[in-house]
Please model this.
Amino acid sequence: NAGVTQTPKFRILKIGQSMTLQCAQDMNHNYMYWYRQDPGMGLKLIYYSVGAGITDKGEVPNGYNVSRSTTEDFPLRLELAAPSQTSVYFCASSPVTGGFEKLFFGSGTQLSVL
Amino acid sequence: QQQVKQSPQSLIVQKGGISIINCAYENTAFDYFPWYQQFPGKGPALLIAIRPDVSEKKEGRFTISFNKSAKQFSLHIMDSQPGDSATYFCAARGGATNKLIFGTGTLLAVQP
Model:
């Protein structure tokens, strides 16, 4: 059982570059999420999706974009990377239709923007 | 109003002792309060959760105590073990956004 799979695990970007963080889940969950984790700041919600074709902004969406074309995949796109986007990014999914309950997290992507 | 304040930032407990982590919130519309456990290099994992209609929930050595009037909730780890050493996050869901808001985390170290 793979659960939530994130790739890559580590990445270094130069300022202004773009990249896509991949996230896939094999649990047939409706809800998927992207969080970023900064030291001492907890987890901040970037974007979330309640199902294929439906996405919505979280607390810190600026500088990011998402799409949800299938139930399984929820990629996060960084356009024009900035040092402020240096963080650990976690993708998660949840099975409960009410949303934001019983989140299953991936193992994260550590991103550095230099 | 959408914040969840967590304390302490770090905690050192001897093996066999009780670890206590506290969280406070302002928004009375929050309706779900989970705790997540995170080991280094891993994503957070749901540990235990409570809803405001009960004052306590226990699962094994882990207990959530919930004080609705004080708008506080806490995690108690009984008989703490070195394997419990991790970062613990409280969270709350609900309010105007109905999203999950995380506390800033507590780094727990259980010394053998």
Summary: The mean pLDDT of chain A is 94. The two ends of chain A are 36 Å apart (CA to CA). Chain A is about 0% helix and 50% strand.
